[in-house]
Fold each of these.
Amino acid sequence: MDFSVRDLSLPRISIIVGHTGSGKTEFAVNLALALAEHCPRPVLADLDVVNPYYRSRERRDLLKEKGIELIASSQACLDADLPSMPAQLNAVFDDPSLTAILDIGGSVQGARVLARYRPRILAQSQGVYFVLNGCRPATSTLEGALISMEGISQIMGLPVVGIINNSHLGCETTVETILDGIALAEALSLETGVPILCHSAEAHLACQLPPQSSPVFPMTRYMKHPWEL
């Protein structure tokens, strides 16, 4: 199976959002590693102030080895209405030579993190991408997925421009799991008019999928459960 991240035609700043447990961080890390092969100055900004687990900072050494700059938010004062963001984030908006991925927390609070940056974001080449995991209870139906995607978009004040189907059940994921997710993603796309950016799956499953109209992004599992670290 041939895949190139160039097939995704991403803007300079890719904003990755989704419901809690959708697999945003795993996708963001894989996307950053794929971009590092083509972009001279890739940046991954871990701005998830919601989930204490599955933080991209867990793979700081790997990212550094591949030439990816990691910007990580502090977990201090997470109960604040507007948690503090790292000062380095300003460079993402000020330096057009950077190619950035922003990993945003999966809740209303997570979406609010970027709402304050809306004017600066709109001045950039950017896109918001919704990660859909059809195996999560809150997004297992078209209605639930629609509520989640539209709710995040409304809070951020930014439109979603692409859907990423990342339906999985961890190590219990099968090809059928992914195919069910593809059907849900296609229904969401049809309902909203938002195109599917790609379908993602671990590489050993991605190669078993039948041909799709949207790119299939083969991924490696880097993020671990707390008890696996």
Note: The chain has one domain: 11-224.
Amino acid sequence: MANQSIAKPCLLALEDGTVFTGQSFGAEGSTTGEFVFNTAMTGYQEILTDPSYCGQVVVMTSPLIGNYGINEEDLESSGVFAHGFVVRELARRHSNHRATKSLDTYLAEHGVIGISGLDTRALTRKLRLDGAMRGVVTTEETDPRRCVEMALAAESMQGADLVDRVAPKHATDWTDGLLSEFNRCRPVVSASNKLRVAAIDCGMKRNILRHLIDLGCEVRILPPRCTPEEILGGGYDGVFVSNGPGDPAAVHYVIDLLNHIMGKLPIFGICLGHQLLGIALGAESYKLKFGHHGGNHPVQNLLTNRVEITSQNHGFAIDTDSIKKVGATVTHVNLNDQTLEGYVHQDMPILAVQYHPEASPGPQDAAYLFDCFATMMKTGSSPSAEQMSQAQDDLKARLAHPQTSTVTA
């Protein structure tokens, strides 16, 4: 494998005046954003291509990044959306049978700046104690005081509508399912029995779409500025509301859209979709101190009393007390900080979770929620505790006894 390009001196500065020095990789120049840390040990490719990271610079807590390179199969979108990438050590060589290029080359191709060789443990500790904050990574500016000024001038995440920057403008169809080695071997669904899903794309990850196809759905991707008439008149069995970047309270057009369609079709929302549905119902959102970013967050399903290890990426949350006041039942809580991780509505077919059941990157514990969505589309009501428990049992059986082929249902 090819060696990395020659590194150049690079500065990282935060808005509180903290400055780190390191070496650049990827592109050169300057980038600003909100600095957040991610605790995943693998999956840097999926993290970089997750549109939810638009406006953010990602600090990886795992000390060695880049050792398996970049491949064409694990991309979660059409490009890199993270504004910058921070690692302790960049692997000098990558080695994996699927790799087509190095992380250094990939970031350079997409114009994204990386910095290595700094104490990411100290940086992570600062972000955890003081909270996520604005910052800059630059190969152009050498004056630390000027770098801090650049950090202070960066856009704030609070109040920012970033969905328009990452979302599609036109509707398209999606047909690709899960890659064969990750297929959970659900029975093939005949064309006459397929469920039609309208997927509102606020910055959606591709593995979500693959799971919906694997579930036996026909998926139509709709832009977030679509109309209620497009959804209600489209012959859909259900609506999916995706993840995405920024402050959910600023995405008024999606909140208005959801207000028009809630109660008329089953709706499943994750991450930003979870937040937008909560606000549309009348609940309140707030910014977390440093957010949840990683593939190892424990969540308890209160309906089944089981614990899931989950993949998460969000900086905002829905207030638990406020969601209870608008007719919702809390279904999932984060065991690290007791924040809200999921709810169903008591009167309308609505299911929402804050984390990522598609697991890219991350564990597969929560993939049963896609089956709950299918059940909800068939029954027209929110999934019950019994239905969730059965879906969890079915997932456990599929993972324990993978098959090499499927049969027509």
Note: The chain has two domains: 9-152, 163-400.
Amino acid sequence: MFQRTLEKDSGLAISRCNSIHTFFMSFSIDVIFLDRCNRVTRILNELKPWRFSPVVFGADRVIEVKGGMAAAKKIRVGDELYFMINKK
């Protein structure tokens, strides 16, 4: 929140989460919902600022990335994601 943009290959991982909002954001994001095995259960492309996502039952975590990245990386429902977490 309160950022003007996200870097191309960065994002935010939120654990124990099955719904998000984009309040106070100034750009669209892709929202990738994952189950406990890191399988993609749902993708919201280009979720605009000041919106709520639906509750995604079965989701255990969420990855928020720059709008358009999910399609650019060809991420699909059912994919199992592996990613590196850089805690700053």
Note: The mean pLDDT is 90.
Amino acid sequence: MYYIRPMKKKTAVSSAGGWTDTETSAWIGLVRAQQYLIGAVEDALRAKGLPPLPWYDFLWELDRAPGGNLRLNEIGRRVLLDKYNVTRLSQRLEKEGLVRRVPCAQDGRGIFAHITPGGRRLRKKMWPVYERAVKEHFLSKLGKEDIARIDKLMRRIREESGP
């Protein structure tokens, strides 16, 4: 959890490690907006009786990969959510018949996940709900210039962190 000490009074520089009020507000706003948006998508999926967002994220990475398969460690680098439990999620998706897990022939330690036809169908079924929630709770609140500005700013941050 990200925690910033509350400010006692409005000052040019807050008590949170020398941040200005604007810097503190920007950071808190970014984290809260992310939490709200992910929650809104999760709520929309749940309301339609669909699995949680990490399932979509995992299946999407496989569906767009050449041949519909990736090593689990590669999926972990690509997913938008919870990278730490990719192995557990892959096991759950395999149990549901949405992916097949196959040991890597080259090194024996790695595992490949292959999306199944059922996994592709589920991902496609989840997409309209996901898309609608993002449009309703994010895109509809912004103009094209706002979206382009956010994209540019987020790219600048991502360039330092890798893909």
Note: Residues 21-47 form the longest helix (27 residues).
